[in-house]
Amino acid sequence: MQVTPRITTTDLLCLERGPGPCAAILFGASGDLARRKLLPALAALAGERRLLPEHFFLLGYGRTPLTDADFARQVTEACPGAAGQALAGRCFYQTGGYDDAAGHAALAARLAELELRFGTGGNRAFYLALPPELYAPVCERLAAAGLTTATPATGPWRRVVVEKPFGRDLRTADELDQRLARVLRPEQLYRIDHYLGKDTVQNILMLRFANRVFAPIWNRDSIDHVQITVAEEVGVGHRAGYFDATGVLRDMCQNHLLQLLALVAMDAPPRFDAAALEAEKLRLLDTLRPWTPARIAADLVRGQYGAGPAGAGYCTEPGVPADSATETYLAARLFVDDWRWAGVPFYLRTGKRLAKRVTEIALTLKPVPHSIFAPLNPEDLAPNVLVMRVQPDEGIELTIQAKRPGPKLCMSAMNLDVSYREAFKADPPDAYQRLLLDVMLGDQTLFLSGELVRRSWQFWQPVLDAWAAAGADGICPLQPYPAGSWGPPAAARLLADDGRRWRLGA
Ligand code: NDP
Ligand code: BG6
Questions:
Q1: Residue spans in the chain of domains classed CATH 3.30.360.10
Q2: Strand order in 478-482's β-sheet?
Q3: Partner residues linked to 59 by β-bridges
Q4: CA 300, CA 231: separation in Å to the nearest integer?
Q5: Which atom of ligand 2 is nearest to the CA of 195?
């Protein structure tokens, strides 16, 4: 579909503000997340987007012994081209341990020297791209060395970004939160869910609340059901150690999928800011139908990929125990018990080594109340489906019925399809660019509060408990699926039992 974006006064809001002078300190700078996501995001901000302040430097930190030149080379390898060069000139590295006072003292000295040289005024963003068990000890060490001490309003700012997973269940998330709260104030702590940094995820709110057209249908009167799919082609890759102890419920459902669900199902917040969004998301989490043993057995499907067209099975991946019972796939039928959504099923699924990489949210509307096109009944007409394509091929699609050229009563389904890339002649920036920028700007709108993380765990905790008590296999038997397929047949049955089918795949 051809779309010409009109330049309107609201485009003024597109002006991107860059942060003031500051330093970024990257813990775990030698790691995978740093190399694949964080360094390229910083390079893009330094290069074509010109959004890093003039007074800025990046200091990598970790146990791997690297010189400044080694780290700069790592940066240019991770980010080829002019953007990487632009960043590499402002990159430094400090070798040191994570729970080691001497290392943090050396870090403090290095920071002081670089801050003077680059005129960053003591403003610091610490990014902990580290295994989760290190979040608390590192924050405590930073605080003990005085590196995160900040005087609100007057002094330089000190912020700390922690990656996911934030705990591995309700209890450990609470414990982590309490430890961090002893050394950091809430406005200093940024809990990332990188899905919230994706343009297309932010667009869910724009679509819903910057347009009048969708609001009247966004409820049980018009919507038959909602499907949220986060399908990955990749397998466990090199992250077997982390993933096998985690599984997709903890890795994807507790955070990314629940956030997508919240954005789709919540009510309109009064403002687009962190507190207002959080309040609506918390209300939404409150309305989710709690898990009972009967529902866990009936409304959840756990799967694990075996050998298939896309390659080896999970249990033969490097680093995975041959008898692993970790789920690489989960499908769930959820209900939001409130006036807006009563009775509307929300089907969620996510998995690794599926047929196609696609993240989308599809709202299927109810049939028309009466068909004037006899002999067709309302159910004979394909329903309208509104699809928000989060990635790849980001866009929006609406399936409608239309008159086809030919005989008088000749109808077929037609797609109104808008691709963001074509419409705006630009690729959406990587989520980490948005989130890193927001950390430096001090904007927590797209980050998670401790309470939100806690309530997300609280929602899934009965499932984790039931799996632990009965052995996950006892209550939710692990269903095999071939690598490269659309998941286990039992996930198709979850919808078939309701007279529905997944929009994509089986
Ligand atoms: P890595 O396994 O690559 O570890 C990052 C760095 O942590 C390492 O380079 C290492 O640096 C240091 N480290 C300290 N202790 C250990 C240890 N016991 N085992 C391994 N490394 C250690 O992790 P990622 O970069 O993949 O992930 C970092 C964080 O980001 C994690 O919390 C992860 O869950 C999260 N995350 C990662 C994603 C990804 O795609 N990679 C996606 C979303 C979240 P050194 O040896 O130099 O000290
Ligand atoms: C991460 C998970 O949070 O998200 C990974 O830990 C997963 O297992 C990744 O692959 C998916 O992110 P994206 O942006 O590629 O959809």
A1: 196-428+450-496
A2: 411-419, 395-403, 385-391, 358-365, 223-231, 345-351, 329-335, 300-306, 478-482
A3: 25, 92
A4: 17
A5: 14
Ligand 2 pocket by Cβ (under 6 Å): 164, 232, 251
* CATH code 3.30.2130.10 for 20-163: no
Q: Please list the residues that pair with 56 across neighbouring strands.
A: 22
Which segments of 401-447 does DSSP mark as H helices, in order?
420-424, 431-441
Residue nearest to atom 6 of ligand 2 (CA): 251
Specify the residue for token string 């962190």: 274
Provide CATH code, domain 196-428+450-496.
Answer: 3.30.360.10
Q: Which of 499, 478, 169 is nearest to 351 (CA)?
A: 478
Helix, coil or strand: residue 175: helix
Residue closest via CA to ligand 2's atom 4 equals 252
Kindly give the distance from the C-alpha atom of residue 357 to the centroid of ligand 2, in angstroms, as a whole number: 11
pTM here? 0.95
420 token code pair = 């963001």
Nearest-angstrom CA–CA distance, 486 and 93: 44
Buried b (16+ CB within 10 A) or exposed e, 13-48: eeeeeebbbbbbbbbbbbbebbbebbbbbbbbbbbe
Give distance in angstroms: CA of 232 to centre of ligand 2. Answer: 8
Which part of the chain is CATH 3.40.50.720? Answer: 20-163
What is the full per-residue pLDDT of the chain (506 aa) written as tens digits? 555 555 454 555 566 888 999 999 999 999 999 999 999 999 999 987 789 999 999 999 999 999 999 999 999 999 988 889 989 999 999 999 998 889 999 999 999 999 999 999 999 999 999 999 999 999 999 999 999 998 777 789 999 999 999 999 999 999 999 999 999 999 999 999 999 999 999 999 999 999 999 999 999 999 999 999 999 999 998 889 999 999 999 999 999 999 999 999 999 999 999 999 999 999 999 999 999 999 999 999 999 999 999 999 999 999 999 999 999 999 999 999 999 999 999 999 999 999 999 999 999 999 999 999 888 888 888 899 999 999 898 999 999 999 888 888 888 899 999 999 888 888 888 999 999 999 999 999 999 999 999 999 999 999 999 999 877 668 889 999 999 999 999 999 999 999 999 999 86
Candidates 141, 145, 174, 180; CA nearest to 161 is: 180
Ligand number nearest CA of 238 is 1
- Residue 345 pairs in a beta bridge with 335
CA of 78 from ligand 2 middle (Å) equals 19
Residue pointed to by tokens 């343009």: 199
CA–CA separation, 54 and 56 (whole Å): 6
Cα–Cα distance, 47 to 39 (Å, whole number): 12
CA distance 109 to 201: 40
CA distance 228 to 122: 43
Q: Is residue 265 a contact partner of residue 225, using CB atoms and an 8 Å limit? A: no
Separation of alpha carbons 153 and 161, rounded Å: 20
